[in-house]
Amino acid sequence: MLASGLVGGLAAPSYAADGSVEVLHWWTSGGEAAALEVLKKKLESQGITWKDMPVAGGGGEQAMAALRARVTAGDPPTAVQALGFDITDWAKQGVVGDLSDVAGKEGWDKVIPAALQNFAKYDGKWIAAPVNVHSTNWLWINKKALDDAGGKAPETWDELISVLDKMKANGIIPIVGGGNAWNAATMFDSVVLSLGTDFYKASMVDLDPAALSGDKMVEAFNRLSKLRSYVDDNFSGREWNLDSAMVIEGKAGMQIMGDWAKGEFVHANKKPGEDFVCIRFPDTQGAVTFNSDMFMMFKVGADKQAAQLQMASDIEDPAFQSSFNVVKGSAPARTDVPDTAFDQCGKKAIKDLAEANEKGTLYGSMSQGYASPAAIKNAMYDVITREYNGDIDAKEAAKELADAVAAAKG
């Protein structure tokens, strides 16, 4: 059965009225699960059964391990949530599907930013459907805690330290984070960016040895250690969404985290400007470090291909892009989706993304696997975590970071 709907002004075919999709993902927190439900319901309304394969873990490392086992066994799922260079790595193995038919009919090339297409396509073929654009250089602040600390959101590093000191004096945990390697690296991402866009590009994207090992990188690690000094002693092993809950409940003042955190605030019925404040990490306004959740499609049997193409089509439907990202806290992966339904944080995310894209200050996030391949990212994770936990000092960390990247590059 074929039906049609409007996608980007074009008539979009409906590829399947029955069938099923098996989806591997790590969206297990409240806000994430609520956002995913939007996609599940859309597919189910078209007669497609959703078979859930959740693998908890904020950065997706556990999900990728589970995926390797399935692909090795010759039984890949229909679709897999994936990030950046992980998608490229799977494409090189020749196991991914081809979405070029639906992408061509629906004009994805015209409305999905080139920075996303660099990962969603391989050898000219569409292999993944981008769901959103998240950015990582956000600071989420409990509004009451901020008011009690003077009321002014920090715009510079010195102002940030001043607010953290006041929050500490007020008897709450000033900042939360760093419970695992991915979380600490997410904090570090913003710290590096705050020291300059040229420095971020040179060190995290271009992997310049001088930038990785120099005085500015030592300063970045010193700043990371300074932030760690405001974190509570029970941080280790705590997932990011539990950190968000502490900010939501007023037990902690703030959190450095990507805008998936906003989904937790929204899920808890909190409103921006009233209950929480969303700002770019101090000294990073005008630049955006991004990641994009994508559903990478695998080669499946002919009986499953129609449902797979329908899922890809549904993901890129502008109406879905709006409704999903309103819940998820991210910006749409399409440039033609209006910001009408978004709250002030969502409108800011869309505006900041457009500005950074225009200025050339839109960078793939190191911590999320969009700046460099997994081997390099993981080597960085190891050094960042050891410095965050106090096992090495800032000077040692800068030297080891350069050495680790060099070794990972081979």
Strand content: 15-25%
**Helix amount:** 40-55%
Mean pLDDT: 93
Number-wise, the strands total 17
Q: Helix count, per DSSP?
A: 19
Widest beta sheet: strand line-up = 4-3-5-15-8
Residue runs with pLDDT of under 50 for 5 or more positions:
1-13
Q: Please give the radius of gyration in angstroms.
A: 21 Å
Q: What structural class is derived from the secondary structure elements?
A: alpha/beta
Distance between the termini: 52 Å
Major beta-sheet overview: 5 strands, mixed
Rough shape? Answer: globular
What do you see in this structure?
The protein is α/β, with parallel strands linked by helices and 410 residues long. It has helices at residues 30-44, 61-72, 84-92, 100-106, 108-111, 114-120, 143-148, 157-169, 181-194, 197-205, 209-213, 215-228, 240-248, 261-267, 302-316, 318-328, 344-359, 374-388, 394-409; strands at residues 4-7, 10-13, 20-25, 49-54, 79-82, 121-122, 125-126, 128-130, 132-135, 138-142, 173-176, 252-256, 276-280, 288-291, 294-297, 331-332, 362-364. Strands 4-3-5-15-8 form a 5-stranded mixed beta sheet, sandwiched between helices. Strand 1 (4-7) and strand 2 (10-13) form a beta hairpin. Helix 9 (181-194) crosses helix 10 (197-205), helix 12 (215-228) packs across helix 19 and helix 18 packs antiparallel against helix 19. The termini are far apart.
Descriptive key words:
disordered N terminus, 5-stranded mixed β-sheet, 17 strands, 410 residues, alpha/beta, 19 helices, 4-stranded mixed β-sheet
